[in-house]
Amino acid sequence: MAERTKVWIANVMKELMKEKPVDQIRITELCRKAQIERPTFYYHFKDKQDVIAWIFCQEACQTKVIDRDSAARALGGMKKDMAFYKRAYEDVSQNALWQYMLEYFAERYETEAKRILGTDVLDPQMSFSIRLYCYGCVGMTKEWVLHDDKTSAESEVDMMYASMPEEMRSVFFGE
After folding, report:
1. CA nearest 8: which of 25, 27, 30?
2. 0.85 exceeded by the pTM?
3. Residues 55-60: what's their mean pLDDT?
């Protein structure tokens, strides 16, 4: 039941985001449209950005970060849900989606690197390279969603992988 309520709230949030920017959506309005009480909203989410992050995570959790086809499908899905992602990326609030994405992907890459290397701690250069790469990929994804109607998801992912620092490429792809 709880998961169904979260999905319902998320779907209503997406509908509202088709109509207006995130900063113009109020929790009261979201609750009214979802036909729920405020305590129900706060039981499931801490704020609007938490709803947006949850929506993103539901889709991103199925993506294999070092698999080109999986990453391209994820980007393609973003293009299909363009209204949501444009509004989410336009939001510059304290807990904006791009910040959540940065932390999410940095953690995924670090976890994968630790698994491959058989270690609990990455050296500082690898950690730096992963964060730098994730900053770049999240920033370029934002630019792609907001401004690029021509580049395919596959091409965008290919360019990201081609820009991966050597030490990361060596660990993830054995190159």
Report:
1. 30
2. no
3. 86
